[in-house]
Amino acid sequence: MPALRSSEGTEDVARLNESCTGGFAGLIQEGGRMMGNPFVHMELVSTDVDKAKSFYGELFKWKLEDVDMGDMIYTLIKVGDGVGGGLMKNPVPDGHSMWLSYVKVGDVKKATSKAKSLGAKVKKDVTEVKDAGWLSIIVDPTGAMLGLWEPKKKKKAKRKKD
Known about the structure:
Elements: H1 10-21, E1 29-30, E2 33-34, E3 39-46, H2 49-60, E4 63-68, E5 73-78, E6 85-89, E7 98-104, H3 108-117, E8 121-129, E9 133-139, E10 145-151
Parallel strand pairs: 3-6, 7-10
Antiparallel strand pairs: 1-2, 3-7, 4-5, 5-6, 8-9, 9-10
């Protein structure tokens, strides 16, 4: 997931944050209680963004919305019901196309540290996504990659005193 800079419009940042907090992800329940750490964002890093957009747009009729990030275009994937995602050019030279899932955590630094203590390798250390949250990317002991996502807390509106 790209890092947003302060020059980006707040509308673009809000759309990215909405995508990353996963519409109904916070409502997932099991036995009447909230389940922890839901999947909240799916990201495709692709070697051919145009071909991927054409394929998935036609296959699933997803709404694809380009967001100018300054140094790149990040495409939001809006699926309607369910967890949305994003699409971007793979930044790794000679890298391949792949999907990456993100799991919501309460504290990305602690979760990254805990994963490391359990045998994970840190592929991308904790990085801020301006006005949206923080992410890290780990590789579990079996070699599977996973993103960890901590959304920024939404500010509560101040109440006027009578």
